[in-house]
Amino acid sequence: MIMTKAEKTRNFIVEKTAPIFNMKGYAGTSLNDITAATGLTKGSIYGNFANKDEVALAAFDYNLKTVSSRIDAEMDKQASIKEKLLVYIMIYQNFLSGTVTEGGCPILNTAIDADDTHPALRARAVKAVMGWKNKIIKLIETGIANKEISADHNPEQVALTVIAIIEGGIMISRLTAKPSHWDLIMDSLKKYVNSLS
Prior knowledge:
Elements: H1 5-28, H2 31-38, H3 42-48, H4 52-75, H5 81-97, H6 106-114, H7 119-145, H8 155-176, H9 179-194
Helix pairs in contact: 1-2, 1-4, 1-6, 4-5, 4-7, 5-7, 5-8, 5-9, 6-7, 7-8, 8-9
C-alpha cells in the first residue's frame, strides 16, 4: 500500500518524537522538542496533528507496537509456554540498555506520567496492561491444557504477578541505577515461572 505524503509526514513525526515522549513524558515534551526532533515547523506539526495530545497518543502507540512486535517475534521462536514467558525477561532487560525503545518501558513510563494528568494517555496505558495480561492468561491456559503448567495455578493471578514483577523490577533498577537489582528480581521471576509445573 502506497502512503500519501501526509501519511509519510505523520509517520515521520511519530517516529522522531516517540523516543522523546517516552523519555520526557507528556508534560516534559514541548513543541520545541517536537520541532527540533523533526526539523519541521510548528505549522507542519499542527498541519498533521490537531494538537500535542494527538502526537503523544500516536507516539505511545508507536512505542507499544515496537515492543509488542519484538516480543511476538521472540515468542514465535520458542516451543514451550515457559520459554515464551521467559521472553518477557529477555525483552524487558533490553529496556534497561535502550535497545528496544529509548527511555525504557512505554507502558510504565506512560502509566506514571499520565496517571493523574492525562486521561487519554492513561486509558492507553490501561489498555496496554490489560492486553498484556490477557496475552499471558492465554499462554497459561494453553500451558494448563497441554499439561505443561499445573491446573492449580490461576491464570489471571500468574499474569498479574509476572507483569508486576517485571514493571517493579524496571522501576527499582532504574531508580537506584543498579542493574544488579534487575538481575536479582528477574532471577526470582525465572524461579517463579519454572515453579508453574
